[in-house]
Amino acid sequence: MTPFVSEIVGTFLLILLGCGVNANVSLQKTYGNGSGWIVITTGWAFAVYTGVVVAGPHSGAHLNPAVTVGLAVAGEFPWNTVPSYILAQFAGAMLGAFSVWLMNKDHFDATEDGNAKRGVFCNAPAIPNTFLNLLTEILGTFVLVFAVLYFTDAVISTDNTIIGLGSLGALPVALIVWGIGLSLGGTTGYAINPARDMGPRIIHALVPIKNKGSNGWGYSWIPVVGPILGATLAAVMAMVLQ
């Protein structure tokens, strides 16, 4: 696979399994309905694991615009490649979210709560507070990107092989994301990834869902801006500490 295709496929798998566990826990008449936060955070960790396993050898498995920007700010990834990676990540996220909606259509129909339906796709704050919600996304993404930079020393090697998030190995990355979800995710749902939130949110707006409720556009900038700020801060901090 080319890096572009790899980022599409890896992000597709990330969102298929990640939004999939949201659907399994939140929608009515699934076998996993109501199984709780531990199941959600574990499912997302395994979703990251799967995406990184597949995409890592081909693109470095960023799967996240914040990771791509963070690596570029740190001088570990070429800026001219950033737009194509982000485009691929959004495409993969939207394909993954659409697949989750399609396979769970009967369960969306069986669910009355519009917020639960939207929560399958994208994040919302447990308690709305613009500053603190933004801070949560900044801190969560800071942990992710700082850990990636600290442990991988991600570079473009002399033979032009891309080494990025995938060089960590999939399991440590999954454990980092699991830890972020368990420790920091309870206030906003820990998007820590602009494509993970905005791509599925767009699909939520487009697909026919009965009583879907609001798309939450008023909040939607926070899971985009927060992760980018957190990734930038992590990159700057990593450079200062070198």
UniProtKB/TrEMBL annotation:
It is a multi-pass membrane protein. Keywords: Membrane, Transmembrane, Transmembrane helix, Transport. Gene3D superfamilies: Glycerol uptake facilitator protein. The keyword Membrane applies. GO terms for molecular function: glycerol channel activity. It is found in: Membrane. It comes from the Bacteria. SUPFAM superfamilies: Aquaporin-like. The chain crosses the membrane at residues 37-55, 85-103, 138-156, 168-192, 221-241. Its main location: membrane. One of its GO terms (cellular component) is plasma membrane. Belongs to the MIP/aquaporin (TC 1.A.8) family. This is MIP family channel protein.
